[in-house]
Design a protein that fits this description.
single chain, alpha+beta, 4 helices, 6-stranded antiparallel sheet
Length: about 220
Amino acid sequence: MKTKFKERIDAEISATKFFDELPAEIGGYNLKKILSEDGDKFFYFSYENEKIHRTFTTYFHEETSEYKVRVKIGLTEFCLTKFFTNKFEKFTEILKNEMQTAIENLSAPANIETDLLIAEKNFGAWEYPKTLPENLEGFELFITPEKPVKITNGSYIILNYSNFEINGDLTIYYNVYTDNFSGESKINLVPNVSYLFDADNLKDLESKLQKNLSAELINIKKFSE
């Protein structure tokens, strides 16, 4: 990180009591003060719930000169755009007003009743996922269609098998804008698009899961070793 940014960050931290007044715990998430740089980012603090594999992290991004929040659900990470700002005072203000709700929402599934585009799919009535084992090929069933996770750009995680020991997973997404399904695997946290699960409807997706799910998990584990 360039000296001018580091000096700016140090001055901002010294001029505020915000970081000293953070609660030690929010909704089952424990505070971890970081206050260190990593590449072009300076990380302030995070709230983590290791048991359910969820994290809320605050940082400054040198590349865009913005203060940001990134969340991690399982092995999937994405930014919460409502926290983006290029002013430190504004960032702490947004955190004061929005942080608790955002952290608590990490533990809650998407409210599909309020999103008509996904409610129409009625994933809760899809019988096939109810037959899936809790553990398959060394991976645990982490997210199911009954409790999807809303991420970014109209996408929802509707199915996820994760192996947290090897940082590998398989995720099935539904996108409300394109109205289709897609798959992605992670091997040592590196995402890889998988075209084996591309589908336009649940019937087609179910057929592809029956055919490819176990084999894809085996491959992820194989290449993670």
